[in-house]
Amino acid sequence: MTDEQRNAPARPRTRHSSGVTHVKERLDGNFTVISNELLQHPELSTMAKGIGGYIQSLPEGAPVGIKALAEALPEGEIRIASALRELEKYGFYARPKERLPSGQVVTRSISYNRPRLAVAEAARAPEPATAPPKAPAPPRKAAELLAGLRAYDSRLVLSERDVHRLEPVVSKWLERGVLPTAVARTLTTGLPQESIKHPAAFLAHRLTALLPPRLPTPATVPRDTPAPTRPEPLQTCDGCDRAFRSARPGHCRGCRARSETAA
User: Fold this and answer.
1) Confidence at residue 14, expressed as pLDDT on a 0 to 100 scale
2) Domain housing 89
3) Are residues 79 and 132 in the same domain?
4) Looking at the DSSP assignment, which residues form a beta bridge with residue 243?
5) Separation of alpha carbons 244 and 239, rounded Å
6) Closest CA to 136 of 187, 178, 174
7) What is the mean pLDDT of the chain?
8) Nearest Cα to 126, choosing from 82, 89, 78?
9) HSE-CB of 148 using CA atoms within 13 angstroms
10) Does the pLDDT value for residue 254 go beyond 70?
11) What is the 3-state secondary structure (H, E, C) of the chain?
12) 53: which residues sit within 8 A by CB, 6+ positions away?
C-alpha cells in the first residue's frame, strides 16, 4: 500500500479557484525557447504569433517563404503573407536584400527572438506609394538611428562623438525621402565576416558612397506620364486555398476549369 502511494503520479496543485494551472515536465530535447515578447505582444495577431513561433522552431537554413510555409501549414498564402508583414512591422522578422559576389541579388530571411526596436518603431509609419519630398527630419532622429545600430550587430557600437559626427550625413538621407528602415538596412546588410575595427569609418564610407540623389519635384515629372495601374487584389480560392488575383473572391482558374470539365 505504501509503495502504491509513493509511485502514484503527483497531482498539480491548484492555488487559484480560476485561471490556468501549469503542469510542466522537464524537456531534454525537441523544444524551442520563445520569448514572451512575441507570444504576449499586445498588437500582434494570434496568426502572426503562431507563424513567428513556428519559424523560430525551424532549423537554421530552413525555407520560410510564403509558399514554403503554405505547404507546411494549413493556412493559405494570403494569411501567411499578412502574418509575415506583422512580424516584420514589429521587428521579429526581416527580409533584407543582399548582393552576392556573383552579382545576383537574393532576399535573406532573418527571424529575431527579440524585436529590433529601431525597425519596429520606424515601421509603424506606413510608407506612401509615391514618396514626395519630405521635410527635414526632426533634431536627434538621425542620432537615434545611429545609436540603435548596435541592436543589429554588436560591432556597430558608436561613441557619442562618432554619433554627432555622422548625424549630418544620416540627416541628408532622411531629408531626401529615405525611410529610417531603409537607412538602417543599407548600413547593416552584407556586413563583413571579419571584425570591424573602425565602425565609424566603415559607416561613414557607406553613407557617403551610397547617398541617393534628391527626389524630383512634381514640376519635373511629365504631365502625360500615364498613372500606374494597380493589380487586382489577392484572393484565397474557396476550393484549394491557393492565392490568385481577382476583383472578387471565389475560385481560382484551375478550380473553375476542373468544375467546368466535371459539368
Assistant:
1) 52
2) 31-115
3) no
4) 236
5) 12
6) 174
7) 79
8) 89
9) 21
10) yes
11) CHHHHHHCCCCCCCCCCCCCCCCCCCCCCCCCCCCHHHHCCCCCCHHHHHHHHHHHHCCCCCCCCHHHHHHHCCCCHHHHHHHHHHHHHCCCEECCEEECCCCCEEECCEECCCCCHHHHHHHCCCCCCCCCCCCCCCCCHHHHHHHHHHHCCHHHCCCHHHHHHHHHHHHHHHHCCCCHHHHHHHHHCCCCCCCCCCHHHHHHHHHHHCCCCCCCCHHHCCCCCCCCCCCCCEEECCCCCCEEECCCCCCCHHHHHHHHHHC
12) 32, 34, 38, 39
pLDDT at 133: 44
Residues contacting 233, CB < 8 A, separation 6+: 245, 246, 247
Grid cell for residue 170: 544620416
Radius of gyration of the chain (CA): 25
Q: Which three cell numbers stand for residue 257?
A: 476549369
203 lies in a domain?
Answer: yes
Inter-axis angle of helices 180-188 and 199-209, nearest 10: 120
Query: What's the structural domain count of the chain?
Result: 2
- Place 225 in a pLDDT band, splitting at 50, 70 and 90: low
Q: Which of 89, 115, 141 is the last residue of a domain?
A: 115
